Amino acid sequence: MNKNKLKVYLRIPSVADSGVGYYRMWLPLTIAKEYGKLDFDCQHFTWGTRADDSKEPMPEPTEKEYLEKGSWADVLYFARNDVAKYIAWAGGMRDYFKETQGVHKPVILDIDDNVQATRPHNPGYRSFHPNSPCMSWNIKSFGIFDKITVSTQNLKDYYSDYTDKDKIFVCPNSLDWKERDAIYKTDFSKSELFKKKEGEIRIGWAGSGAHWENLKHIEEPLLNILHDYPQTTFYFTGLFGDLFKDKELIKAGRIKTIGWSGLKDWSKLNREMNFDIALAPIMDNMFNRAKSNLRILEYASARYPVIASPVEPYKCFNDKEVLFAMEKGEWYDSIERLIKNISLRDKLSNNLYNKAKKDYDIRKNYKYWVKALMPQK
Predict the structure, then answer these.
(1) 377 residues of the chain, pLDDT tens digit each
(2) Is the domain of 213 the same as that of 77?
(3) Are 368 and 303 found together in one domain?
(4) What secondary structure, in 3-state letters, does 240-292 show?
(5) Distance of alpha carbon 150 from alpha carbon 313, whole angstroms
């Protein structure tokens, strides 16, 4: 390894061994390394799998491993994990190297959500409810870490109440468009998901099971659309309780749940779903205002036209790139408009693709991470 490069110890715990660890840490640092800006050593990122193929979480690093990797690194970069022992290791490592080597090695934390505003329908509410230990440690961590990276300006503004705002760096979620453009050109003509019936218009949503209330908001207008327009189908991912349980439509094969994808396969599946209209509903609340625009970026990479809620994460786009809908009637009207107007679908998808690729390319935006990780002179 080049001794002149910044050396980063990257700590990704099991709770972040997912898209969180990938988009927030693994991807930007991998690109930065590719361009010769830094080296990094990571514990542990397995693309959401387990190194030994077991169902157990990855083992915690031993004290020896922490110190060996910390000795090598210039900077110690931790994914968020609001647990006392985990946070103590970060502060302990910094203090140890300062006392034993006389060297200040900054400890930096990445925060991807406003967990202080976690919604009751979110599975994470079990850990992040009022007066929970995790909520407390999330705030206490600001007294330990030297700098914070966040995905949105909203998160920076919110957490500036707990630390110096100059210590918080906005590093926007971005895609590797070189990879996504190659996937877009892949031939999916033999795919069962890709193959459509003649005249079918496929409406879709992709995301995790943490979006119950967001999807609940569009359930009624979407079901009405499916009943009013027999050429439409609805494909969606995740686990959502009792949503979209229309027996008639399910029996007719017009509502389908797409099996969950592994992280390595996600880019391919995102394209393979072959939506004609992609939906991005989010309710306007503190938790969602802090979210990033990643869902729309994913849709953009597959050249899907998008209907979205006019909520803070999506206001970086305009109405020539995305159709906006707030009330249920607006959702019905917007979906209907795109069903009837294929030229509008093409125009929106092209405009959105160009905007997303221009502003959210990790091969440019990795520089935000490099700047944040550089020790202060």
Answers:
(1) 455 799 999 999 999 999 999 999 999 999 999 999 999 999 999 998 865 555 666 788 999 999 999 999 999 999 999 999 999 999 999 999 999 999 999 999 999 999 999 999 999 999 999 999 999 999 999 999 999 999 999 999 999 999 999 999 999 999 999 999 999 998 888 888 888 999 999 999 999 888 999 999 999 999 999 999 999 999 999 777 889 999 999 999 999 999 878 899 999 999 999 999 999 999 999 999 999 999 999 999 999 999 999 999 999 999 999 999 999 999 999 999 999 999 999 999 999 999 999 999 999 999 999 999 998 76
(2) no
(3) no
(4) CCCCCCCHHHHHCCCEEECCCCCHHHHHHHHHHCCCCEEEECCCCCHHHHCCC
(5) 13
Query: In this structure, what CATH number is given to the domain that contains residue 18?
Result: 3.40.50
Number of domains in the chain: 2
pTM: 0.95
Residue 1, in any domain of the structure: no
Rounded distance between C-alpha atoms, residue 356 and residue 361, angstroms: 8
